[in-house]
Design goal:
Distance between the termini: 15 Å
Radius of gyration: 22 Å
Helix content: 25-40%
Number of strands: 13
Strand order of the largest sheet: 3-2-1-4-5-6-7
Length: 411
């Protein structure tokens, strides 16, 4: 009888339907509606979307004011009195069976107050971890730092991570986050997007002892699939007998400290002048100095074009320092294109091992020789695409979440 039971799910995410988490939220929303469930989305940032059951809860102006307050106080996830009140009011009015929290950083809601409210009112909650901030209580990527395991404070990367103008409130934030989650056990499921992330979340004092699950991020396989013949290569001036390496990034910069590691792709291109390197992603200061065999396309907003670029490439290269999932790996493989990159936590776990290889971070010689090895292999591109689409399809992701929602409601 549970299969037939209509559920009402309310998702909260920082953006909608843009960027990776916005698309994921949108995909779950769409599948819920297709299956005759009720679905509501509350989001904080970006343009106003007019739609049934879609609420924008924070104005950009309020967000800027709160962001300034966060920089002065050093507390990233507090403030936001008005928008948090608005969100809680929507939850009270809509009375959802499940509240599903996606990525809720990005200055639009008071995380401590929201979690405390859901906890206190015994509202069945699914929390998806797309980054690490819900259990570090501060940074999105802890990298080598282990302070989050014991309570933070004296943050080694205070400026980069919290944007604080000087006050180190990381220990205070950590205590507030821990308190918010205390006793939130029966009605909470913590979902990580990779086994690597789940393992870390389980080690944290904030989320240990909760119920943990893994659900891979999904994508639209009607868009991200292998495009056998495209004239993209010719548009880019790459001939059929040349090899093409693709790199997709949210920020392409010459800054050696940037976590996405664009500097390594530039180094690789210099070492391999006979190969064409194509980069999709907006450039940031400092402007990257690129060699002649590199084409920088800037931001590619159109998913169809992006998937055709993946399909046109021989391999995709990933140079991140840390990734909690890696939509780039999922997208590339779904488009039939193998992956070579640095070990970054999740990518080496979630990628198809037959069509991907990851070497130690920063080891340029290993990266180059692996890229060269992969460029020599004749891969069955359609086969890669079919295998990947069966794992990363948004329908598979949504089904997994629906199963988790239903289990939560049974309990």
């Amino acid at each position: 009888g549970l299969e037939k039971r209509i559920m009402k799910v309310l998702q909260v995410n920082s953006v909608y339907p843009l960027w990776s988490t916005g698309k994921i939220t949108h995909d779950i929303h769409t599948v819920l509606l297709q299956k005759q469930h009720q679905s509501i989305v509350c989001y904080g940032r970006g343009p106003l979307i007019d739609g049934n059951g879609i609420y924008k809860i924070c104005t950009e102006r309020l967000s800027r004011i709160n962001r300034a307050w966060a920089r002065i106080s050093g507390i990233m996830y507090g403030g936001h009195i008005y928008s948090t009140r608005k969100l809680i009011r929507i939850i009270q009015e809509e009375k959802p069976d499940i509240v599903h929290l996606q990525c809720i950083n990005n200055a639009f809601v008071n995380i401590y107050k929201l979690i405390t409210y859901l906890n206190k009112h015994k509202i069945k909650t699914v929390l998806t971890l797309h980054a690490e901030f819900m259990y570090t209580a501060n940074c999105g990527h802890a990298l080598e730092c282990e302070r989050w395991k014991t309570g933070c404070g004296k943050c080694p990367r205070l400026k980069q991570e919290t944007r604080s103008l000087g006050i180190d409130a990381t220990a205070y934030s950590w205590r507030r986050m821990k308190k918010a989650f205390q006793g939130f056990d029966k009605n909470l499921v913590v979902v990580s997007v990779s086994p690597w992330l789940k393992d870390r979340a389980s080690q944290s004092l904030i989320l240990s002892g909760k119920k943990h699950e893994v659900v891979y991020n999904g994508l639209d396989t009607e868009v991200f699939h292998y495009w056998n013949k495209t004239d993209i290569r010719h548009q880019l001036g790459i001939s059929d007998n040349e090899k093409m390496v693709f790199h997709v990034t949210p920020n392409f910069t010459g800054n050696p400290l940037n976590l996405k590691g664009g500097i390594y792709v530039i180094e690789l291109a210099k070492k391999m002048p006979h190969v064409k390197f194509v980069v999709a992603g907006p450039t940031f200061d400092p402007e990257p100095q690129v060699p002649d065999n590199m084409i920088v396309l800037g931001s590619v907003e159109d998913s169809t074009r992006l998937s055709q670029l993946y399909s046109a490439a021989d391999i995709t290269v990933l140079t991140s320092k840390k990734e909690t999932f890696s939509m780039v790996c999922a997208e590339s493989l779904s488009c039939g294109t193998p992956i070579v990159g640095f070990q970054a936590g999740a990518p080496e776990q979630i990628s198809l091992s037959r069509y991907s290889e990851f070497v130690e971070h920063g080891d340029m010689d290993a990266l180059q020789s692996t890229v060269e090895k992969f460029l020599d292999i004749q891969f069955q591109r359609q086969e890669i695409s079919d295998s990947a689409c069966a794992i990363y399809a948004k329908e598979v992701m949504a089904e997994n979440y629906i199963r988790i929602y239903q289990q939560l409601m049974e309990e």
